[in-house]
Write a structure and sequence with these properties.
Distance between the termini: 21 Å
Radius of gyration: 17 Å
Helix content: 25-40%
Order of helices and strands: EEHEHEHEHEHHEHEEEEH
Length: 248
């Protein structure tokens, strides 16, 4: 099975029975993926769609803990999809998770409209032109709205979701207004919002948001999540999340 891992890649133990193949010097998953996979609430009868799947880390973490009926993942970068498929093969997860090389804007028409109980996404955070674009195209596509915009993400999610299906996303806190506005405009009502802080007394840098397609307004602000304590160690809550979802 080690033949599935190429010379410029690593095989990383997620500490939950599964492994992930990643590039040594390119995009590697971070704590935002771990937090999002824990934030998602799905049942074992649910069909889940993950968009902007990258290496497939969120799908693997979701399956490890949540065990939904099926997970379909889509990613626009062909190289990432090929690598993610090798991770699925290494973990013998092909019957539970499928990943496709696909533009998310085309996903509803290709995979089906209104058929998913949940859509999960860790999208590019940065508006194109809002910073220095990484010269590595793989990194740039993961971080900047080059292949899709936030509006594209939310509109495609709405089309793919079944009535009252749930939408889960992690994003930068400074995009909060854009996120909430576009969710409501596209018919996904924001229902839960959680701010993520690097540590106590630091302003939030991430948000976790849950929305429901076609639901009535009723937004609940959850307790803030702090990643590090005052000694620079993971907080007890983050330790618990890692113990149940995997480890960096």
């Amino acid at each position: 099975m080690d033949s599935l891992v190429k010379a410029d890649e690593t095989l990383d133990d997620l500490q939950n029975g599964y492994y992930i193949i990643q590039k040594q010097k390119s995009f590697r998953f971070g704590i935002d993926a771990v937090l999002l996979s824990d934030f998602v609430s799905v049942k074992n009868k649910d069909k889940v769609l993950e968009m902007c799947a990258g290496t497939g880390i969120i799908s693997i973490l979701m399956y490890a803990k949540k065990r939904p009926k099926s997970i379909t993942a889509i990613e626009i970068q062909e190289e990432m999809v090929e690598m993610a498929n090798r991770s699925l093969q290494y973990n013998s997860l092909q019957k539970h998770i499928s990943i496709y090389n696909m533009d998310l804007r085309e996903a509803p028409s290709l995979l089906g409209n209104s058929i998913y109980n949940a859509v999960v996404v860790n999208p590019p955070y940065m508006k194109l032109g809002s910073g220095i674009t990484n010269p590595d195209r793989r990194q740039a596509l993961a971080r900047f709205e080059i292949a899709c915009t936030l509006e594209d993400v939310i509109e495609s999610a709405h089309k793919a979701l079944s009535p009252f299906g749930k939408f889960y996303m992690v994003h930068r806190s400074d995009r909060l207004v854009d996120v909430i506005y576009l969710m409501r405009a596209k018919g996904i009502e924001p229902k839960k919002l959680r701010f993520v802080h690097s540590s106590l007394y630091k302003k939030p840098h991430l948000i976790l948001v849950e929305g429901i397609k076609g639901s009535k307004p009723d937004l609940k602000i959850m307790e803030p999540l702090y990643i590090y304590d005052n000694k620079g160690n993971y907080t007890d809550e983050v330790k618990k999340i890692y113990n149940t979802n995997g480890s960096l």
